[in-house]
Amino acid sequence: MPKRGGRNGPSGSRFVAFNDLEERDERERDRERDNPRKDRNTRRVSFKPSLLQYSGGIKRRMAEIAIRSHLEDDEDMGDMPGTSRPENTRRKGSPIPRKKFGNLAHLSRSPLGWYQISINNGQRYARDELVSVLQRAISPEQLIPLYWRSEKSFISFYVDDHRVAERLDGLDRALQMPDGFRPYLRIRAACPQVPVNDELRARMQVVMAKRYNAQTKALDMSSFHTDPDFKGIFCGLFRSPIMAAAVEIMEKNIPDLVALNLNNNNISSMEAFKNAHTRLPNLRILYLADNRIPTATHLISLRPVPLVELVLKNNGLCSRFKDHSHYVRYQTLIY
Fold first, then answer.
1. pLDDT, tens digit, for every residue of 50-63?
2. Inside any domain, residue 325
3. Quick check: bond before 140 cis, omega within 30?
4. What are phi and psi of 18, to 5 degrees?
């Protein structure tokens, strides 16, 4: 009776397959005998992932990955030779380290020398009480809070001393009120919004008179806000109302002004000099170096002024020209 699956005897398909395998094995053994060294050094590398690593299911593999990444993140390489860890770095998600009391923080220096201090929930306390606690904390530095303002959820004031601002920034949560509350201080470089009143105008007039040279008819207002006579008062000429007040003082007191130096005042616009050709008819020399004038368009109000010398170095508009000759040609076309 014939067997299931096809032909009888050794000629069946099953036996043919086995015979092919035996012949293939014999050919491989003959090849190894002929070239033993070549086959011995041949390595077959597979880049396919092994099925064994997935045994145990997805949960086990995910747990292994999480543990491995956690160990790699926590490993400290700072003590090993040839390796270094950058300062002030922390792993993503870790809490921000608090400052220690007494350590000075590296507060960036304000270009104008003024700093704003904000204290959350500071309105709960009287001004004298809060200032007294702050003064004891930063002693021997002298705290002079300026432009004090109280809001619903915080108080703010300004200081014009970098050392005082740095000491306040170093306090952080180490400051404690008599009732045990620890206020949070926020310090940043900022300038107050100063109203142009009679007191400010009078102070500006005194400083301008001190800086005026009657022989050369020149007024030096460079770095005007840093004058010692402005101690406790912010007088930034980059604020349009303050610059307008300065031009008004010039018009009334020194109408024969010939040269004006406004270097290093953070000025970005000369809108206050509109109609300056009639208000200051003798103005011929104007220095505006080391300011923040971005384009020549911001100087359009100076076009009617018959200037013979205009200094604009170290302003943003200077980077728009390939060389000095292009800059001079452009200024000649405008003025």
1. 554 545 566 666 66
2. yes
3. yes
4. -65, -40
